[in-house]
Structure formats: C-alpha cells, structure tokens
Fold:
Amino acid sequence: MIKNFCSDNGSGVSPEVMQALVEVNTGHMPSYGNDAVTLEADELIKSALGRDCDIFYVYNGTAANTLACKAVLRSIDSIICPDSAHIFTHEVGAPANATGSKIITLPTVHGKITPEQIKEAHQKETYWGAHATRPKLVSISQSTEWGTVYTLNELKAIKTVCEALGMLLHVDGCRIYNAAVSLQCSLAEMCQHIDILSLGGTKNGLMFGEAVVFFNQEAADGFLHLRKQGLQLHSKMRFISAQMKTLFTDQLWYKNAEQANQMAAKLAEGLVKHADIAQYCPVQTNQVFVTMPDELAKQLMAKVGFFPNGPECYRLVTSFDTTEEEVDGVLGLLK
Structure:
C-alpha cells in the first residue's frame, strides 16, 4: 500500500496541533470552556473570520451540523439543501431526527445549487400554506461534497435570496479552509454572507474538534443549553480549543489546506494522462473525482486506498500531510 487516499479523516494530527495538546496537558484549568486557552482561541477565530460571532466547540462535524439546525428549526419548518449534502446523505438522518424537520433536496451541478432553485423550492413548499412546512434554513457545503467551491458572488447571491425569503444560511465548512485557498480569499471574505457556520477542524489537521459559529447571534439563543443537551459539551474544553487556537495561529489552517489542494491538483493532472481515466468534475480543492473502468480501479485499489463514488466514478482525497512522493507513487502504478 503506497498511501491511503480514502479520506482526509484518515490522516494523522498536524505536528503543531499535537505539540499544543502536549503543552496544554499541564496542571489544572477551569472546565467547560472557562479557561484562558478557550478565550484565546475565540479571539483568534473571530479575528480570522472578520465578524463578531458566538463560538461553540463540539466534538465532530455531524454534531456541528445537527445542532446548528436544531438551534433554529421547529418540526413545522424545513431545510433546503443539495441532494449530495452531508446532512442528507451521510449523517444517518441526524438533523432530521433532531429537528423533526423536512429536508427538501435539490439536484446539483457538481455539488452546487443556485438561488433560482432555492426560490423555486420555497415557492413550491409554501404554496400549500398550513398544509406544508415553512422553509427556514438553506444549508450548503463549502467546499461541496464534490470538491467544488461556491465563489464569493455565488455565496452573496444565495444569501440575498435567503434574506428575501426570510431564511437563514447555514454552511457546512468542514473543508472551508480548502475553499478559501482555492478562491485565494480570506476566511473573513468567505464568511460575510453566512448566518451559521459549521467550522471544521478534523479534516485539516486536528485530532478532534469542530465549532458552531453564529454570525447571526440571535440564532445562538439557548445554544449553551442545547450543546449540553446534545451531548457535545466537553468538560476539559482546553483540549479542543488548544487545537483550534493552533490552527488559527500563523495561518496554520492555510498552510495545511494549501498543501492538500496542491497535491490534489498534481494527482488529478497525472491521473488524466492515462487513456482510460477522465476527470469527473473540476478539481478545485483536495478531492479528486475521476472515471475509470472498474477493472483498472480494482487493480489500483489493491495497492492504493480510495473509494468508488458511483458507476465507474472514484474519489481520491489528499490531506495536509500528503507528499509529492506519495502522489508520484500512485501515478507510477499507472505506467
């Protein structure tokens, strides 16, 4: 096995983050987020995101997405999202279970939806008045589940239609760092048009930990209690916040995401040189989707870890610790 390209969840911990965990593992500190490290992490994140916000640390991305939805929805409400969205496909129905809310899915082009689709879905759902749900939340992923990114103008347009329809915009940002690197923009620019953000960590070098960020601070009402009720209040909070603090120190988030993106671009460029391999969708971040004959894929998967993602479509994911030598090793097998 040359390298596992199944997921960026499979990578280890960024050395800087591991060192931070060692350093914070000294003495006693106040629990439940009342420690100095958590306060320092909050300030670093707020500075990077460029807006006043409320930040709540949780264990994982499913919890971040689910509790973000739970914070603003009742069972009579609904969520509009892409049909590839994690909240619909890969979270065991957790958001729907926690909220009791209907999820309205939209077909995508490479994982992205448009303001026009949102508007049409809203009109169809509200047409029946009290006999249907109230669309209250649009949830998109940045980057998408297909590794593509919404431009800043596309984000602005989606936010504009959300405001016109009285809806909030939630962004699943488990790979938001990769999207920012791809767009060559700051996180602050990225977050100007977001109400609630699931801020990633694990896929960009953390051992564990994500955050729910409320730019719409009214939506955060009661979330302190909701996080506890949702089994996500970490008593020794400093072990999450120390990791986040490190990620946002000296732009480690950028360094890690840039490495992953560059290796994905190199991998994709090499793969499509093979006569039987074609690019399935644009490679804009750290996920590569290609088509190839199943027999060829079977031969490769005997030596390299990656997953099928549909008929003759396969996904390979790079990480912050993926090296050029590892990519060259995969490409060398094709020769």
